[in-house]
Amino acid sequence: MTTALGIVVPCYNEQEVLPETAKRLLELMSRLQNTGVITSDSAIYFVDDGSKDSTWQLIQNLAAQDIRVHGVKLSRNKGHQNALLAGLSVAKEDAVVTVDADLQDDINVIEEMVQRFSEGCEIVYGVRMSRTVDTAFKRGTAQIYYKVLESVGVEIIYNHADYRLMSQRAVRHLQEYSEVNLFLRGIIPLLGFPTGTVYYDRSARFAGESKYPLRRMLALAFDGITSFSVTPLRFIAALGLAVFLMSFAMVAWVLYGRLFMDAAIPGWASSVIPIYFLGGIQLLSIGVVGEYVAKIYMETKRRPRFSIETVV
Ligand code: UDP
Ligand code: MG
Question: Do the beta carbons of residue 85 and residue 48 sit within 8 Å?
Fold first, then answer.
């Protein structure tokens, strides 16, 4: 069976990598087209996520040179996840693959993904076998992150980023999840459908630098937790109960000292430390609750997640 394939590539300030990325993707497409794996009207969609460099210029040139290349320009920078969604809303092919512009994910497994799709999988995850090229810091933090998500009950595919194939049907279902704070990696396992996995080695970015500094990584990490789990709120409630019970124990201790030992409990430390302790816990808890309230606030506005300026 020949599949119509769309490839969505989010690009934010990717002028260093884009020409090479386009070349490699087009070579791959030609090969798959010649071997009859994908149709001749398969296409690539480069989504310009409000880049400040010449990315859009490059995309326009590529689109002019090859009819298989399309460009989607967002009105401003909306972030990786929203750029992916914008691309998915434009790509109408039977199967759509999303892949980063820096080609850290091996594009040669796209053939295998399409293979799985024709066998009936509606979602095919690309999973990294090794991440030796990532810095020890990135590996370590990623590791901790997966563990934390798992412990609060978020279903997530280990070592899978946003490199995957989805059927047009799965994409349409995804679009019904209309939350503004979008964490695709958490939502897609919720879709269900027959799924498959392909494995690959992650390589280094061949040019340019990571657009995910620590600040953005942390933001994505918190989003992943608070969008899918209320465990932090439950934890606060449990903490409150524990402190409440502890205060009973303290009362008992004070009474025991007063009645049987004839010793007043010495004053300063026993009053000042609990003040700081409880004050700290309360502020922290309000902060966590506030995080959820903020999320409700953002979601109730129902603002559009992206605005497409131009499509070529
Ligand atoms: N990206 C984007 N919008 C952003 C940040 C990143 O579209 O605001 C794209 C970027 O161009 C790349 C992909 O998201 O194609 C992943 O970014 P990057 O490679 O910098 O992340 P890393 O691989 O370091 O996690
Ligand atoms: Mg990258």
Answer: no
